[in-house]
């Protein structure tokens, strides 16, 4: 009886299994599928309609007021309706939005002493509800952003301002507290989007969360919101009050959110269900298999994945962990740092693991281009590293497999966040360091803890309770001054400042600090570049921060979508007015 | 009966209070920060962080935050989301129709399929029918929704290009063609859910009927000369359905809170997807609200199940 039953069900199970295996195999092999889905008679719906743009953000926007947002995805979506005075393109040239012309010394827009900038605004601009845009809106935006009760995320750049006044409807005068070489960081780019005074004036305080415009913004941009479901979908229509309303490419724009990065990549690159996919954080090997309807566009920004060498001792047996009075037993030795630098195989990491999303680099400042040092280079030379260590007396004297000197063993704990790419990088680095006679223990911490900034959590990156750690950061605006500040002595997180600060390597060099002070006061653009490059070269030379990979953000773009022009200094949607579909 | 009801309601309120305290503490003490994306961003100063924390109410100690939250809750206010800065209740209500239409329909179909199939399986035990259904049920239970979901997408969206795999929540059904669109975009998420739920319910129904079949009253009914249909329909089912109804009642809260993974895979903007996204974004007020609503529904439907039980089975006395 029993064997009979098994005989009966066997073919059934077999065919089900065969079906699953077969379809899984077909799914992995993208070649036939690309042929199928891109054949002319089965053109997907999204691509058919050239009047409608479909954007896919797997991280869904939840708020459309960029200044209250805690994530780039919201700012991306806000940028479709809101505009700054000006922005910077990929070649670091200023592009005008609400401003009529670039303020310069020659046209009187900038003062000689660097404390004043005068913006002339375009005169014919209306908000999407028909109200005219004036200089008062810019003044209001300043008041709104610097109101502590509002809690605007973009407030820091505006702290340098003493006053903003509207001298007439189209002129705004910004006075800085001190001569400010980075006058162009306020009211421009990502953090400079101007809000309408008539909409927000009643919400300039703790009640800002009740402002309806947080979800239904009124802006000056090419499209305006008709429907917004936070975390799900935003529907835009062409803004009839836009200054170039006739040249806008679409009558309807839909921004769908949610899901995962891989299926978002599939929707844009393989099936054509969407025209644009944001932030495709997908492994290079998977991206390569998704082809047919779109391309991956990588924009190198200023983010750089780096390894930081703790200059203080994280060992609990040595007393208080990772504090300035307790120097690291061997990472303070320049020879060890140089040897580690020579042992890193950056090219392998960049090409094998990052693919189109990263490029090996030796520099700390990787963008804007004019600030990138050409004096530096990296080298993968394990033999040289070994020779350096041998010459300095780091030898395996007790035969335990790791080099030592005066009783100090070259044993490291290497921590980073949980992320498949980072764990693979850790493995490569571990192998390289072990090849030169060091012992490496790997540790990975959940990203929500590692990046929590929580001073009470010993695994937060600021605490740096490990010998080396790895993460990405960079300058978010086209001037590296704030970013270079993160390597100064004053920015070291310690118990007495409640572990606040970005200099997690605890690098402290008075020469470097002096150069930063100089940079802060320097107004001459050429000299600023020279100074910044000198500071970069000093950091590279010291090898406390070891740059690994210059990272790019990747987006998926349908082959029929035209006009995309990504820049590291603004959001992908910054020039959406120029997008169209053929 | 009224005394029993009152006692149950009072104990339910106490249970809910304890649950709310536990959820609140877990969420407040768990690592994670709504501003985690700002970590390492040199353009965000500590002062700015402090301002943001203060506007979100995170600067106050946990007991104060809990009392404030509880007080607001008693007034029907679930608070404001950290990431969209809008009322949580609005976010949930926005998601409710989609959740009910997708997850609710799926559950309804599951019940309608599972009950007859379970009965057939039980009556024709060890037949080809039973073995076939058992095998299918086995697949349904074993294959996780993210796998079946992906499988369906690859077959029906990528290969065949028949069905969309991005759920369009802006679609309003006004005519036949938009209805067809709505059906097309709902088929796959519903199918995935049905495959999973039907299997569980069917197995439950089957074992429940199997347990009743050898009973003496069934033999008596056959001896009286009743047809199989009458025996099953009028005698067996009455008894066999009691535990199944309890199970269904306890499943209903899950319908309201949505299907976490399936919604994520198909981009269905339901409450499950909202919960997952909010957890990922550390949007504590939303997570708190959804989990607490779930707790309320579970406690409520437990009570309903007990009352139903007494109603269906006269042997059960509530006291």
Features:
heterodimer; A: about 575 residues; alpha+beta; 11-stranded mixed beta sheet; 3-stranded antiparallel beta sheet; 16 helices; B: about 325 residues; mainly alpha; 12 helices; about 0% strand; globular
What can you tell me about this protein's structure?
The complex is a heterodimer of chains A (582) and B (319). Chain A is α+β, with helices and mostly antiparallel strands and 582 residues long. Helices cover 28% and strands 20% of the residues of chain A. Chain A has 16 helices and 20 strands. Chain A has helices spanning 2-28, 30-37, 45-48, 72-78, 135-146, 197-200, 261-271, 284-289, 334-343, 346-354, 382-391, 420-435, 447-450, 481-485, 510-521, 525-542, and strands spanning 52-57, 86-88, 94-96, 116-120, 161-168, 171-176, 223-229, 233-238, 252-257, 276-278, 294-309, 358-360, 404-405, 408-409, 411-417, 439-445, 468-473, 545-558, 561-562, 580-581. In chain A, strands 1, 7, 8, 9, 10, 11, 12, 15, 16, 17 and 18 form an eleven-stranded mixed sheet that branches. In chain A, strands 4-6-5 form a three-stranded antiparallel sheet, with helices on one face. In chain A, α9 packs antiparallel against α11 (382-391) and α15 runs antiparallel to α16. The radius of gyration of chain A is 27 Å and the shape is globular. The termini of chain A are far apart. The model of chain A is unreliable at 1-47 (pLDDT under 50). Chain B has 319 residues and is mostly helical. Helix content of chain B is 75%, strand content 0%. Chain B has helices at 2-29, 46-55, 62-74, 88-123, 128-142, 145-159, 176-212, 216-223, 228-257, 260-266, 271-280, 284-312. In chain B, α4 (88-123) runs antiparallel to α9. The termini of chain B are close together. The model of chain B has no long low-confidence stretch (mean pLDDT 87). At the A-B interface, α1, α2, β9, α7 and α13 of A face α2, α4, α5, α6 and α10 of B.
């Amino acid at each position: 009886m029993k064997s009979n039953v098994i005989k009966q069900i066997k073919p059934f199970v077999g065919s089900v299994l065969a079906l699953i295996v077969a379809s899984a195999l077909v799914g992995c092999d993208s070649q036939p599928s690309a042929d199928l889905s891109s054949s002319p008679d089965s053109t997907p719906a999204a691509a058919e309609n050239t009047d409608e743009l479909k954007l896919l953000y797997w991280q869904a926007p939840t708020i459309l007021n960029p200044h209250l947002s805690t994530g780039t995805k919201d700012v991306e979506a806000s940028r479709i309706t809101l505009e700054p005075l000006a922005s910077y393109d990929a070649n670091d040239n200023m592009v005008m939005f609400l401003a009529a012309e670039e303020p310069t010394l020659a046209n009187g827009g900038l003062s000689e002493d660097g404390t004043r900038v005068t913006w002339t605004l375009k005169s014919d601009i209306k908000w999407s509800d028909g109200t005219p845009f004036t200089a008062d809106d810019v003044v209001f935006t300043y008041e709104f952003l610097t109101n502590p009760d509002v809690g605007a995320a973009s407030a820091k750049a505006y702290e340098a301002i003493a006053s903003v006044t509207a001298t007439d409807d189209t002129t705004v005068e910004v006075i800085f507290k001190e001569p400010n070489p980075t006058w162009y960081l306020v009211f421009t780019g990502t953090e400079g989007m101007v809000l309408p005074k008539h909409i927000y004036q009643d919400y300039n305080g703790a009640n800002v969360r009740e402002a309806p415009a947080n979800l239904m913004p009124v802006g000056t941009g090419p499209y305006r919101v008709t429907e917004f479901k936070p975390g799900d979908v935003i529907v835009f229509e062409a803004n009839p009050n836009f200054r170039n309303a006739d040249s806008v490419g679409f009558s309807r724009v839909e921004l769908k959110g949610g899901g995962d990065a891989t299926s978002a990549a599939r929707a844009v690159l393989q099936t054509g269900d969407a025209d644009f996919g944001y932030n495709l954080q997908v492994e290079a090997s998977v991206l390569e298999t998704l082809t047919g309807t779109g391309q991956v566009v990588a924009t190198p920004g200023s983010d750089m994945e780096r390894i930081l060498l703790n200059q203080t001792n994280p060992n609990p047996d040595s007393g208080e962990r990772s504090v300035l009075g307790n120097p690291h037993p061997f990472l303070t030795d320049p020879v060890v740092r140089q040897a580690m630098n020579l042992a890193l195989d950056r090219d392998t990491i960049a090409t094998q693991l990052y693919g189109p999303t990263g490029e090996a680099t030796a520099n700390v400042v990787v963008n804007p281009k004019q600030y990138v040092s050409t004096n530096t280079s990296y080298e993968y030379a394990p033999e040289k590293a070994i020779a350096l260590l041998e010459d300095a007396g780091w030898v395996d004297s007790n035969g335990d497999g790791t080099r030592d000197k005066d009783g100090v063993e070259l044993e490291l704990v290497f921590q980073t966040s949980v992320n498949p790419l980072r764990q693979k990088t850790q493995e490569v680095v571990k192998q390289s360091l072990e090849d030169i006679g060091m012992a490496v223990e790997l540790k990975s911490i959940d990203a929500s803890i590692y990046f929590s900034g929580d001073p009470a959590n010993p695994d937060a990156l600021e605490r740096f309770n490990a010998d080396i750690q790895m993460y990405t950061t960079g300058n978010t605006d086209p001037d590296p001054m704030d970013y270079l500040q993160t390597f100064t002595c004053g920015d070291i997180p310690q118990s007495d400042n409640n572990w606040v600060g970005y200099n997690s390597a605890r690098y402290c060099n008075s020469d470097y600090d002096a150069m930063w002070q100089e940079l802060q006061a320097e107004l001459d653009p050429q000299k600023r570049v020279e100074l910044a490059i000198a500071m970069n070269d000093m950091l590279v030379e010291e090898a406390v921060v070891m740059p690994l990979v210059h990272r790019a953000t990747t987006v998926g773009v349908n082959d029929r979508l035209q006009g995309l022009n990504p820049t590291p200094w603004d959001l992908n949607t910054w020039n959406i007015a120029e997008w169209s579909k053929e | 009966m009224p005394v029993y009801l009152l006692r149950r309601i009072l104990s339910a309120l106490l249970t809910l209070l304890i649950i709310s305290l536990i959820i609140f503490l877990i969420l407040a003490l768990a690592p994670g920060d709504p501003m985690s994306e700002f970590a390492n961003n040199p353009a965000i100063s500590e002062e700015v962080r402090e301002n943001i924390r203060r506007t979100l109410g995170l600067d106050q100690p946990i007991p104060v935050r809990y009392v404030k939250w509880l007080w607001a809750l008693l007034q029907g206010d679930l608070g404001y989301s950290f990431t969209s800065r809008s009322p949580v209740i609005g976010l949930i209500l926005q998601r409710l129709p989609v959740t009910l239409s997708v997850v609710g329909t799926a559950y309804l179909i599951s019940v309608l399929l599972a009950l007859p199939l379970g009965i057939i399986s039980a009556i024709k035990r060890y037949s080809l029918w039973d073995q076939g259904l058992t095998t299918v049920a086995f697949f349904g239970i074993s294959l996780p929704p993210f796998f079946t979901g992906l499988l369906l997408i690859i077959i029906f969206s990528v290969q065949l290009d028949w069905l969309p795999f991005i759920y369009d929540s802006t679609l309003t059904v006004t005519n036949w063609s938009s209805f067809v669109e709505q059906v097309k975009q709902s088929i796959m998420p519903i199918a995935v859910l049905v495959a999973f739920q039907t299997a569980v319910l069917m197995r439950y129904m089957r074992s429940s009927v199997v347990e009743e079949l050898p009973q003496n009253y069934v033999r008596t009914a056959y001896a009286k000369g009743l047809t199989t249909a009458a025996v099953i329909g009028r005698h067996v089912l009455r008894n066999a359905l009691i535990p199944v109804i309890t199970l269904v009642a306890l499943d209903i809260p899950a319908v309201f809170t949505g299907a976490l993974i399936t919604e994520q895979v198909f981009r269905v903007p339901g409450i499950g997807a909202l919960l997952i996204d909010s957890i990922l974004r550390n949007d504590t007020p939303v997570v708190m609200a959804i989990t607490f609503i779930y707790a309320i529904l579970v406690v409520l439907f437990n009570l309903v199940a007990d009352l139903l039980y007494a109603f269906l089975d006269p042997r059960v006395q509530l006291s």
